[in-house]
């Protein structure tokens, strides 16, 4: 529903679908860059003619959608895209994804809630899967006060450093720890240049190290939500907590009570 329109009020309306904002509209209007010229938009359904017009006018040049035999493909959408030079292609995922936040929870069953913190931690987890680290994949997601995602990151080599030419091991003198940029660092620096993360919340799949703690503090982030890790409690973690306490950054452990399965079959 549009911002300010109570879901409970409008969802029961006889013509509830008249009021809904399509995903494409929300993605375009909630963007974190100055413009969308030559960008690519990924959507779960083939766009209707109405959203096709918005996509074209926004400057987007490529549309990628999931196959759905039940979805109607409006001929007008393809006709407008062809005339406007917008490429559209179908994407068929080759694997399903399961996000299990319930594994360590002391509950009888997982909850079916993908709102708020569950959603943002799920985004952080999905982002972690882009990491090339063979042992520890970490993801982070920064959210502003309007609950809009303004930055994501995962642990990896610095920009321009080929993953295949730098070490991923831990034992040698020249090991990965010297080179790898952590997820929290990348989330802060990969955000759009027009975005200020002051007073934002950072979701991370691992407790921040002391170096990332410094970046978090200096960037102005005020809340950090992390996944519980059995290895937490190291001396370095205590140092991070001490800095956060002194700087007014609040720490929250994310309640692991959810299982999310992305079934692309």
Automatic annotation (TrEMBL):
- State the PROSITE patterns in the record: CYT_DCMP_DEAMINASES_1 (PS00903), CYT_DCMP_DEAMINASES_2 (PS51747)
Q: Which GO terms describe its cellular component?
A: cytoplasm
Which InterPro entries does its entry note? APOBEC/CMP_deaminase_Zn-bd (IPR016192), CMP_dCMP_dom (IPR002125), Cytidine_deaminase-like (IPR016193), dCMP_deaminase-rel (IPR015517), Deoxycytidylate_deaminase_dom (IPR035105)
Q: Does the keyword Hydrolase belong to this entry?
A: yes
Name the GO terms of the biological process aspect.
nucleotide biosynthetic process
Q: Describe the reaction catalysed, as an equation.
A: dCMP + H2O + H(+) = dUMP + NH4(+)
> One Pfam family for this entry, by name?
dCMP_cyt_deam_1
Q: Which residues form the CMP/dCMP-type deaminase domain?
A: 1-88, 115-251
**In the record, what terms sit under GO molecular function?**
dCMP deaminase activity; zinc ion binding
| Enzyme Commission code(s) on record | 3.5.4.12
**Which co-factor is required?**
Zn(2+)
- Keywords, alphabetical: Hydrolase, Metal-binding, Nucleotide biosynthesis, Zinc
Q: What does this chain do?
A: Supplies the nucleotide substrate for thymidylate synthetase.
Question: Which family does the entry's similarity section mention?
Answer: Belongs to the cytidine and deoxycytidylate deaminase family.
* Protein name as catalogued: Probable deoxycytidylate deaminase
Tell me the organism.
Macrosiphum euphorbiae (potato aphid)
Taxonomic path: Eukaryota, Metazoa, Ecdysozoa, Arthropoda, Hexapoda
């Amino acid at each position: 529903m549009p911002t300010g329109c109570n879901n409970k009020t409008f969802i029961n309306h006889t013509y509830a679908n008249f009021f809904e904002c399509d995903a494409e509209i929300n993605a375009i209007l909630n963007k974190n860059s100055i413009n969308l010229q030559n960008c690519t938009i990924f959507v779960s359904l083939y766009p209707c003619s109405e959203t096709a017009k918005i996509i074209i006018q926004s400057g987007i040049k490529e549309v990628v959608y999931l196959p759905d035999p039940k979805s109607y493909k409006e001929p007008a959408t393809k006709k407008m895209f062809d005339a406007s030079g917008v490429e559209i292609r179908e994407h068929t995922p080759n694997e399903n994804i399961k996000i299990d936040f319930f594994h360590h929870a002391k509950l009888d069953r997982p909850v079916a809630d993908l709102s708020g913190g569950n959603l943002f931690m799920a985004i952080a987890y999905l982002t972690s899967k882009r990491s090339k680290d063979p042992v520890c994949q970490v993801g982070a997601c920064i959210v502003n006060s309007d609950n809009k995602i303004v930055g994501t990151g995962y642990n990896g080599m610095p920009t321009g450093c080929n993953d295949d030419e730098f070490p991923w091991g831990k034992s040698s003198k020249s090991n990965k720890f010297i080179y790898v940029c952590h997820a929290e660092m990348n989330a802060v620096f990969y955000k759009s240049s027009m975005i200020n993360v002051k007073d934002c919340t950072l979701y991370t799949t691992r407790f921040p190290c002391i170096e990332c703690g410094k970046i978090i503090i200096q960037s102005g982030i005020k809340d950090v939500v992390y996944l519980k890790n059995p290895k937490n409690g190291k001396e370095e973690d205590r140092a991070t907590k001490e800095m956060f306490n002194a700087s007014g950054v609040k720490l929250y452990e994310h309640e692991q009570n959810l299982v999310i399965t992305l079934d692309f079959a």
